[in-house]
Structure formats: structure tokens, C-alpha cells
Write a structure and sequence with these properties.
This protein is an alpha+beta fold and 77 residues long. Helix content is 31%, strand content 18%. It has helices spanning 8-15, 23-33, 37-41; strands at residues 48-49, 54-59, 68-73. Strands 1-2-3 form a 3-stranded antiparallel beta sheet, with no helix packed on it. The two termini are 22 Å apart.
């Protein structure tokens, strides 16, 4: 299932306050950064730079021999 850009806020608003406390932040991070579930679970609080508006995503799929990362811009949402 692919959502249009306009539908994403509706989905997230429907999740807010429902289910476990981790559900909304995890789905919002995936929706706005494109990070995989495993990448989100590997994130540390220090990986989020609100001043620069970026998050560091620790990858495993790009290279099996070494750890790689990518910086993703955050949306105002």
C-alpha cells in the first residue's frame, strides 16, 4: 500500500494516542525519513539533530562488510 503525500498526515493523526506509546513516533519516522524498521530501531537519541534538521540512519543493507550511514532531512512535521 502506498499513500499519497496528502494522506500521510491523516494516517498519523489517526494513530496519535492509540496503541503503544512507541507506535506513533516509529510510524512517523518511517513515513517522513524512508527508514526501515530495523534502521529506526538502531537509532540513538544523539542521531537526531533538531538544530540541523537531520537524522542519522545506520544502515546494514548497503554493505555487509562495514557499517554505513546516511543523513536524512527532517520535515517540520
Amino acid at each position: 500500500l502506498y499513500l499519497r503525500k496528502e494522506e500521510m498526515p491523516q494516517l498519523l493523526e489517526g494513530l496519535r494516542g492509540k496503541g503503544p506509546a512507541w507506535l506513533y513516533p516509529m510510524v512517523a519516522t518511517a513515513a517522513y525519513t524512508g527508514a526501515r524498521r530495523s534502521e529506526i530501531l538502531r537509532m540513538h537519541a544523539a542521531d537526531v539533530d533538531l538544530a540541523a534538521g537531520t537524522v542519522l540512519v545506520r544502515e546494514k543493507k548497503r554493505s555487509r562488510k562495514q557499517r554505513t550511514t546516511r543523513r536524512v532531512s527532517l520535515t517540520p512535521a
